[in-house]
Write a structure and sequence with these properties.
469 residues; mainly alpha; 16 helices; globular
């Protein structure tokens, strides 16, 4: 059994595949910002400061940003040289072989699907608060999953179905909506920075490192700067979604690397500034709330600014869902086109130039999960799955440079193998700081994937069906 058969990387990966090439560097950069700026900045900053890192959450964000930066450079190089809409799945197919590619693709399906459903649950809470504030609140039975005493989380389900319709209409239209909503949340963040900048109390930064670098709480839970970094890493999940747009970018070998790197740099700077100001205006001990940014402005007496932040949260979480949902459909599109999933899913609608079948199936499934299942700690699987993909992408740069040194690389990491190695070490280290139960769930998901691979994918792979040279 040839489990490690590789899919050759060639310029053909940048030819037309039926999808519509309509995205430029600006669209791709805003796609990255749309995916990154969301739960991380509006929710995770406060929780990470209160529970894990204290004011040193700034350092946690810097460390997570560095690890993401090393991985982003690896993504940029492979996006410009290997191409394809499969992201880490496609790169692993070229570097390591089919069985590793399948595991990565199966991992990415979980990463993106759980992310969208988890964000939809958070979005639902903020949307319901907004409805209640204007006297139009929904009955409790329509805002909670059955296991929590309700019937269905209706807002969470409906927002997924609305995004499904938008993605069916076309990627260009989706990108325009994303840009508009990103502008709204960037305006929101600007207002917070302007207000908070004049209300900083330096004594709130003392003690700066209350939980140390890496310790364990009384209940055994990891705490400290490094544990905080592994948690806030969730804030950076999403820039890799830009790499799934290669087949819809006008000049992918130039624009995709720009979109990946520019969006990550912009978002990292925003995270550092916001987390520093947030812990400067309010004691970190008070930030373990659902909306710490809005809460801090309320404590300062700026209720109008708090209301604006609530608007920013709703639009911010919407763009996160939109981009991650988009990326999920393109990953499945690439896998089905290769035969690892049924090839019937790889059909592109002649009018909209979108994989309508995949979009509808994903939309219905995620809508049901978001409406009926309270995700809770399942969202931690997103972190470990993403980190695993980042490690393999960084390693893939090294392997492909050795195996195909002649491959055209319009963008190439400087300093030889140094940056990819740093990406492997930093992302691998962050995986080590995650709870054991997260590892168990992750390995369980991969085990299910291996059963599906040997039962279906191996026998239906298009690469395996090709005649041997």
């Amino acid at each position: 059994m040839n489990l490690f058969r590789t899919k050759p990387a060639s310029p053909a990966a940048f030819c037309d595949s039926g999808l519509k090439r309509c995205l430029g560097a600006f669209d791709l950069t805003f796609m990255g910002i749309g995916a990154i700026i969301g739960t991380g900045i509006f929710v995770l900053t406060g929780i990470a400061a209160a529970v894990y890192s204290g004011p040193a959450v700034i350092i946690s964000f810097i460390l997570a940003g560095l690890a993401s930066g090393f991985a982003a450079l690896a993504y940029a190089e492979l996006a410009a040289s290997v191409g394809g809409s499969g992201s880490a799945y496609g790169y692993s197919y070229a570097a390591f072989g089919e069985i590793i590619a399948w595991m990565v693709g199966w991992d990415l399906i979980l990463e993106y699907a759980v992310s969208v459903a988890a964000v939809a649950n958070g979005w639902s809470g903020y949307f319901e608060n907004a409805l209640t504030a204007i006297g139009l609140g929904l009955p409790a039975a329509l805002t909670k999953a059955p296991s929590m005493g309700g019937i269905i989380n209706l807002p969470a389900s409906l927002i997924i179905l609305m995004l499904m319709v938008l993605l069916i209409i076309g990627v260009r239209e989706s990108a325009r909506v994303n840009v508009a909503m990103v502008f709204v949340k960037l305006l929101t963040i600007t207002v917070f920075i302007a207000v908070a900048g004049f209300n900083v109390h330096p004594e709130n930064w003392t003690p700066f490192i209350p939980f140390g670098w890496f310790e364990h709480a009384d209940d055994g839970r990891p705490i400290g700067i490094l544990a905080g970094a592994s948690i806030v890493f969730f804030a950076y999940v999403g820039f890799d979604a830009v790499s799934t747009a290669v087949e819809e970018a006008r000049n992918p070998q130039r624009d995709v690397p720009i979109g990946i790197i520019a969006s990550l740099i912009i978002c990292t700077l925003i995270y550092i500034v916001v987390s520093g100001l947030l812990t400067g205006v309010v004691s970190y001990t008070k930030l373990n709330v659902s909306s710490p940014v809005a809460y801090s402005l309320q404590l300062l007496g700026y209720n109008w600014a708090s209301a604006l932040v609530a608007t920013g949260v709703i639009t911010g979480l919407t763009t996160v869902m939109l981009v991650l949902y988009y990326a999920l459909t393109r990953i499945i599109f690439a896998m089905s086109r290769d035969g690892l999933l049924t090839a019937k899913l790889a059909r592109v609608h002649p009018n909209t130039k979108t994989p309508v079948r995949i979009i509808v199936i994903c939309g219905v499934v995620i809508s049901l999960v978001a409406g009926l299942v309270p995700l809770g700690e399942l969202a931690e699987l997103v972190n470990i799955g993403t980190l695993a993909a980042f490690v393999l992408v960084s390693l893939g740069v090294i392997v492909l440079r050795m195996r195909q040194p002649e491959l055209p690389r319009p963008f190439k990491n400087p300093f030889g193998y140094t940056l990819p190695i740093l990406g492997i070490l930093s992302c691998g280290a962050l995986m080590m700081f995650l709870p054991v139960v997260t590892w168990i769930r992750f390995l369980g998901w991969l085990a299910i994937g291996m059963v599906i691979y040997f039962a279906y994918s191996y026998r239906h792979s298009h690469l395996g069906a090709e005649p041997k040279a």
